[in-house]
Amino acid sequence: MTQMNFSSMARNTRGAGLSDCEDQVDMRRLRGYRLGRVQEQLKQRDLGAIVLHDPINIRYATGSRNMTVWVLHNASRCAFVPAEGKAVIFEFPRCEHLNDGLETIAEVRPAIAWYYFGAGDTVDSKANAWAQAMADLVDEHCGGNQRIALDHGNFQGTHALEGLGLELHDGQEVMEQARVIKSADEITCMNHAISVCEAGMARMREALRPGMTENELWALLHETNIAMGGEWIETRLLASGQRTNPWFHECGDKVIRAGELVAFDTDLIGPYGYCADISRSWLCGDGKASDEQRLIYNLALEQIDHNRNLVRPGTSFREISE
C-alpha cells in the first residue's frame, strides 16, 4: 500500500483565510441564497410558510445557530419562514441576542417549549399556545394561504395546528430539495470543511501505531475539527482488525495491533456547519500487508475506479445507479 507524507498534507491543507486579491465567502450573500432556495420551494408547492424545529434546517434557512446538538433532541427553539419576507425565530430563553445582525430574521420571540422534558404535564396547553402563535403568523404573513409545512412535530402540536384550520405538509422534502443546488459560497464552505477533515486525517495517520486504542485514534479527528472551527462528528465509525467486517462497529477501547487494517468514515461537521464525509483504510505498523489484505484492497479499488468512470457529463444519477 502506498505510503504518503501526511505531515506535508496537514501543513498544506487549504482553509479559509482573508485575502485582498481573492473572492471570499460572503455570509450575507450565502444566507440570502439559502433563504431564497427555501422560499422558492414553498412557492412551487403553494405553501404559505414552513415551521422548522430541526436546528440544521433552521440554520440553513436563516443562519441562526444555538446549541445545535442539544436542540436536536430537545425541541426548544423553532423558526417560522414565510414564502415571502423574513423569518421569525422562537429562541431559547435569554439567547435572543444570538440572532443579532442576521438580516434573514424579522423578529425574535421567546420559544414556547411544548416537548415533555421542558413542559411536563403542561404539554397540551403549551402546544396549543405554540400552535396559536403559528396560526397568528400565518394570518399575518401568508395572505390567506393556510397550507404550511413542518419538518418535525410531536402529535400534540400537529393536532393543535390542524384544530386551528391549518393544512399540514411535509417540510423535510422542502428543505432537502432546497439544498440540492449549492451556491459558489456554499461550495467554498464545503471545500473548507474538507480541508479541515484532511488535516484531521493526516494527524490520525501520523499518530497511528500498534498499542493505541481505537478511541485514542478517533479523538484526534475530533480535536482537529474543533481546533479549526468545526462543530461535531455524526458517528463513531472507526474499527480495526476483525471488527472492520461486518461494517458499522463503533470505535471503542480495542487495542490496534501491528498488521491490522484500520477503517473509518469521518462524518465530520466542519466549519460553517458543512459536512465532510470521507472514508479511509490504513495498515497499522511498518510491515507489509498480507495477501488477503491486498486482495480486499484491490477489490475496493476496482469498485471505486469502476464507479468513478461512470461519472461523465450528461449522465443521470439514475443511469449511474443502474
For the structure shown, list the relevant keywords.
three-stranded antiparallel β-sheet, alpha/beta, six-stranded mixed β-sheet, 12 strands, single chain, disordered N terminus, 322 residues
Q: Could you characterize the architecture of this molecule?
A:
Helix 2 crosses helix 8 (171-179). It contains twelve helices and twelve strands. Strand 5 (147-150), helix 7 (155-163) and strand 6 form a beta-alpha-beta unit. The model is unreliable at 1-6 (pLDDT under 50). The relative contact order is 0.11. It is elongated, with a radius of gyration of 23 Å. The protein has helices at residues 6-12, 27-44, 55-62, 68-73, 116-119, 123-141, 155-163, 171-179, 184-207, 214-227, 291-310, 317-321; strands at residues 49-52, 78-82, 87-91, 105-110, 147-150, 167-170, 232-233, 238-240, 261-265, 268-269, 275-276, 279-283. The protein is of the alpha/beta class and 322 residues long. The chain has a six-stranded mixed β-sheet with strand order 4-3-2-1-5-6.
Strand neighbour order, sheet with most strands? 4-3-2-1-5-6
Q: Tell me roughly what share of residues is in helical segments.
A: 40-55%
Structural class label: alpha/beta
- Ends apart, CA distance between termini: 31 Å
Number of discrete helical segments: 12
Which spans of ≥5 residues are poorly predicted at pLDDT below 50?
Answer: 1-6
Number of extended strands? 12
Q: State the order of secondary-structure elements, H for helix, E for strand.
A: HHEHHEEEHHEHEHHHEEEEEEHH
Strand % is: 5-15%
Radius of gyration (Å)? 23 Å
> Judging from the principal axes of the Cα atoms, what is the shape?
elongated
Mean of all residue-level pLDDT scores: 94
Largest sheet: 6 strands, mixed
